[in-house]
Amino acid sequence: MMAGAILAGKYFYGILFLAVTLLTLYEFYRLYAGTPYPVPKFSGMAAGGLIFVISFLSFSGLAPVKLYSLIIPVALFLFMAEIYRKKDNPFLSLSVMFFGLIYIAVPYSLSAFLVFPAANSHLYTPGNLLGLMILVWLNDTGAYVFGMLFGKHRLFERISPKKSWEGAIGGTIVTLVLGYWMNFFVPSLSRTDWIVLGLLVSVFGVYGDLFESLLKRTAGVKDSGTLMPGHGGILDRMDSLLFIIPASVAYLMLKIALF
Length: 259
Prior knowledge:
Helix content is 71%, strand content 3%. By secondary structure, the protein is mainly alpha-helical. It has 2 domains: 1-120, no CATH class; 125-259, no CATH class.
């Protein structure tokens, strides 16, 4: 479904990722519902949605980059609104809310940089994002298969006892092989770019998954949500992308700056 929406056009992509941003933020904020510092989740979701919409409009060329200045009054409003919320630990609540925006809304918003690349005159280029997601899916599949067949040495048992070094290495091999050939299917990025992105997927995908496992352990839950029965929530399914997208954008921006 995600692949179909991304290929259908820029507005389908925008609607899809806006919905994913809001739902993932909802799941994240709900993890703290029973804590002494409940988060104003709807305010956080509104702010996260605004960040994505501004990014979509700016990277696509539909609006000037200076539109980002709207984030400043929104942030000030969130600070002021907390004064009227008669809650304990208001600063911890705000900290969790803004952490959710940095952890979730910003990475999803940066996906607009991938689909509206400056190198292609900001025209909608879905292959960049879709190719990256295919690398993620193949990395997960390779890690699972190699882990099931050869996994003996735990990667980070304290946080995720099922992950193994063998699985991580196997996933990396599969991803780099696919990255080598990805240029034939998505020529908007070079073969070198896809190999580097494959390496970033292999490294940051693991850390993204481990970080989300740490969040769930801290919150004392098994899954972030129940939207997809048997698979957990959206955060469970998209956790690696929250690290991979920023790392990939940073690489491509650095490449532009240097070359």
